Every structure is written in C-alpha cells, then in structure tokens.
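FIELD: query
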Amino acid sequence: MSGEAERDLRERLAAATALVRAQEWEGLGRACRDGLARHPGSGDLHHLLGLAELQAGRPGQALAPLERAARLDPRHPGFMQGLARGLRALGRTEEAFRAGEQAWQLAMTRAPAPSPAQYLQARPINRVQFRKSCALDDLVALFLSSPPYHAEDLARLYFLADNITRALSLGVSGDLAEFGVWRGHSARALKMLAPGRMLYLFESFSGFPPGRFAEDDRRRGLFRDCDAARTRALVGEDQVIWVPGIFPESAAGIPSGLRLAVAHVDFGEAEATRAALEFAYPRLSPGGLLFLHDYGHDGWPGVAQAADAFLADKPERLTLAPDRGGTALLIKG
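FIELD: result
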C-alpha cells in the first residue's frame, strides 16, 4: 500500500471511530462503504460496517462484512468477537458461542494494543471454564466498545456479575436501583444480570446540580453529555422504571414499600451520595447488595466522605474491589 493510500485509510478509520463514539450508525455504514470502495482489503472497515448494520437492526446484512473481516485477519480477537455478535443476532447460538470462545482464546494470547477497545484483563476462571455465558460475553463486548472508562474496567463488570448472580441465587428478594446512570452501560449490565426484576434508574440527564462544586472545579461540568434518548435505547424500557430529575426530589413518587436486592450508587459527589444511601439502605433486603462506585477514587473524595459518615453507626462494613474506580460493596445484615 502506498503512503498516500495508508494516510487515506488512517483518516477514514479515524472518521469511522468518531461516528462509533457518536453512535451514528447510518453514517458509519455509509462511511465504511465509501472506504471499502478504495480499500476492499481493510478488515477494520468490513468489521465496522458489520457493527453498523447490527446496530441499525439489520443482522442479515451484517454477517457478510463481519465474516469478511474475520477471514482477512483470523487472529484478530475483535473481528472474531464481532462475528460472534452477528451470529448471535441471527439466532445461530452454537456458532456464536464457538466464535466467542475463539475470540477470547485469541485475546488471551495477543499483546494489548494501544486502543482502549483492545484493553485486556484476566477473566475469573469460573467464567472461562465452568459458567460460560453468551449474555455476559455480550456485556464484555459492550464494555470494550464503550468509552475508555468502561473499556478499561472489566474488573468492575465481573465484580458486579459475580456478586449479583450469587446474591440472587441465594434468594435475596427485591428489585434493583441505580443512582447515576450517565450513558447506561452499568444499567444495562444490571438489567441483564437480574432478569425478571424491576430496575429503577435515577438520572438527571443534565449533569451535576448547580452548587455541588466550586465554579473553578473542572468536575462541575462533567456528565452533561448524556443523551436521554440514546441512554434509554441502550438500556431498554422493558422492566425498567426511569426516574429523571434531580435526586432525591425525583424519588418523591416511588412507592414506600419498595424493597431492593441491589443498589448501585454512582452519583460522584457527597450530597447526592448521602441522599442515595438514605434512600437505599433501609430498603435493602437482608443479604442485599449496595455498590458504591468511586468510593476508593481520590478524584471523587465526597463519595467516601458521605459513605463513611452515613455508615458510622451501621453494623455493616465495606469491602473494596480492585477495579479502576475503587468500587466498594456492602452486604446488608
């Protein structure tokens, strides 16, 4: 490939990546088709075209480019994982499972690439050998294809998955709630991990309320890039109760008899974290789980301050997970 062609391909892939981040699937499809007219041997463009067709709800049209990408580079774990997703969308479960397992075998023997989407972390052995789950593989693929903060935090996903699966298998009663949804990746994980349970989702869709941080604090403007329509589309509406607005005022209409098996608190600042704990803790069933994201994150000290003050007179203690954000877990006594 000539230097000019290489530059053209790099520019096209950079533009396609921007469309992925913006979730502009129709635009991504057009960009990939245009690129393939000049670079028919690009596995990346075939792969992205297949993903665009999947996201647009056309799995029948997605399979050919996904298969082509896997043939062009049969040792690329991302291409094989994409093929697994395409096969699964068509109901070809056994083939999808074999492709997914092959993707993970490739990933475990391949050095991490600089792209966040190729960030690799060890998986619990039970998930590899004994408790294989196509649904969990889909969630892993979702996290790997999401913004870097999620793509680099598979430990958090497995921490949620193993503890929630165990608690529900022990018969802990109640529904689930997440306080701070942002773009919906962890909410989708909660929904998948607890089928048949209602999921209450509390999110302002406008970032932090005024006055929570100083004017010169960079954090005050974070999380405003939350598109409500896209977040709801990612998580879905079935067995989900969306509670938009500023918490705790937004929770005024929640039934007083609500019981929770799982609460996931991810508000990031002290006042809302304290309010979420005051709401969730008394509603947790015995054996229920309360996850505090960013408890061990020095960039969000208000989370630990609020939690430590609230739990000072409670019998339970927090257990820390070695994930990126320093998630803490409380099991209700």
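FIELD: remark
Confidence is low (pLDDT under 50) at residues 111-120.
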